Amino acid sequence: MSNSINYSYEQLKHFCTDAFMKFGFSREESDIIVDVLLTSDLYGIESHGMQRLVRYHKGIEKGLIKIDAKPEIVFETPVSAVIEGHDGMGQLLGHKAMKIAIEKAKQTGMAIVTVRNSNHYGIAGYYAKMACKEGLIGMSMTNSEAIMVPTFARKAMLGSNPIAIAMPAEPYDFFFDASTTVVTRGKLEIYNKLNKPLPEGWALDSKGKGSSDASDVLKNIVGKAGGGIVPLGGETEQTGSHKGYGYGMFCEIFTSILSMGLTSNHTHIGGKGGTCHGFIAINPAVFGNADDIREHLSTLLRELREAPKAEGQDRIYTHGEKEVFAYEDRMKNGIDININTVAEMVDLCNYLGMDAIHYLGEDALKLTLARSSYDM
Amino acid sequence: MSNSINYSYEQLKHFCTDAFMKFGFSREESDIIVDVLLTSDLYGIESHGMQRLVRYHKGIEKGLIKIDAKPEIVFETPVSAVIEGHDGMGQLLGHKAMKIAIEKAKQTGMAIVTVRNSNHYGIAGYYAKMACKEGLIGMSMTNSEAIMVPTFARKAMLGSNPIAIAMPAEPYDFFFDASTTVVTRGKLEIYNKLNKPLPEGWALDSKGKGSSDASDVLKNIVGKAGGGIVPLGGETEQTGSHKGYGYGMFCEIFTSILSMGLTSNHTHIGGKGGTCHGFIAINPAVFGNADDIREHLSTLLRELREAPKAEGQDRIYTHGEKEVFAYEDRMKNGIDININTVAEMVDLCNYLGMDAIHYLGEDALKLTLARSSYDM
Questions:
Q1: Which residues 129-158 of B are in CB contact (within 8 Å) with A?
Q2: Which part of chain A is CATH 1.10.1530.10?
Q3: Was domain B4-62+334-375 assigned CATH 1.10.1530.10?
Q4: ipTM for the complex shown
Q5: Over residues A296-322, mean pLDDT
């Protein structure tokens, strides 16, 4: 029995767009949300696409995400804006904020827009790419529920705090999108499902000691009992723990601090989300000829790909290359959705009164029913 | 026999200022250069202070550093500038560029200034702190001779590419300054001097395989024979190697790419330096009340310091705290200079026709003479 179903991009889009409209979002809003989610699946970042639907569903049900939130610009200059999100959907706030940053950067050369009281906004890179598609350098950051344990601590204080940056280049844009923790929570969940011990240097137990027990670490994170994931650079200063912790702070400055929003250690407490984002757009043309600059970057990226490989390696990647290939492959050959995720999508259909067979096909129902009789 | 001599800040300043004036810099220029170098020693970053004098001496002798270079602004907008450094002294170009960024940011809210064809500029953090002292967020980056081996490569392609950021806070500014490699070359040199094997996950041999042989790695770096230091995050994607490599690229974009200067892999080849820098200044006041924002950051930093400690740890540091204590201690108790460095300073006196006993004391001569009879 296959443990995934292959869907075309169009079919997933049809399902998702109608689902978010059923939740009460407008057609235009649903289109934006769905584009963020499906771009993630198309890039091969399954953790942030269809697999996250259930989290948005729960967020809306619990009232963490307010469908009719009206974002407000509470501070603005020609190079900046601060948006009060009023607990709106993260993707809509992110999209709006980056659009403002792009418009301002086209006028002034560069702009930073921050957002407070938002929710999970999907992949950080989506918004960086929005600017990149307009010929600009784009940056996007978000704080999140505390999960990073700072160097020498035993309590998670910062979020996974991803930093994304994209810049136009040929034949692939430079596109870097990564958490400032050594790995994301999703990785721990995979090890937990497979019942595999965690590699050394990823996570800490409730006393702040290295742990290979994924289940225990995840339980402690949820229960806020101490421990969590270590910064990029690991547990000790010898491997650069303080540097990943520093990049986590970098993210915090451009999200919660410059929006006067909740810092990661105060988000997701007492029925309140409070996630904060930051968006930067920079026009390369304020440094000279934008075409020359793009070519200069393209040359460096090509030299990196063509550099001598380590013994046993046949390829050096530049950031963004893998996503381009994943995108092309999935647009052509469809997107494999894990059967557990399909089951969640079927549940969502039932919850929203949508015809699961119409949207997801007969196999979806058959497989998820077969799955429940085995797995329950 | 002591292996260091303690000097007061004033005495080192007197020696250094006169030395750079002997090289041909003006009084004002010498003051800037010396302030960058001594700030490094005061912060406890010995690798970038007096210990680097010999490198600047060699750079000037070889003609890599041109004392009479006249920097030129080749492109400018209200939020940006690009400076052609004409192979000038890095500290002077860095200081000039950050001053321009600060002035522009005070007018417009934020600014980025890039510099090409410069030289080693000391600690990146110095320039970030310049903006911070003016109430702004400061960032400073520099590329350098290629030393970072990208993930899956066996040749160094990027520099140590430090990124520094400083932002006003009480009682200590946030101040993060770190290479995007797991460690700097200086660390390898220390292990080599001590004849100690390198920790796993720091360096690669000429084939791109992990190496613990500091001497071999350093020899290969100098000879451009392959290998080098791995990115922050280590050698494999499992520990986040691609993330450190991504931050290395981040630095490259804001230095060489946006200045149309030499990328790290093309600097320091054929008698040409070509180092590039990038400076960012952002006025927090374009996001609301600057005092409120400073207090918001100060609160997060305090919460981090007060967070529960890992078992066996009694302190969590926030970035910039160690430098504050080192600065206060060294201003009060003087700066210990390693005897090998003192010997280089004595040599410099002789080279420049300065009276070593007058500037560095009788002990300097005695100890360095004693040292040479033992160490030669």
A1: 137, 149-155, 157
A2: 4-62+334-375
A3: yes
A4: 0.97
A5: 97
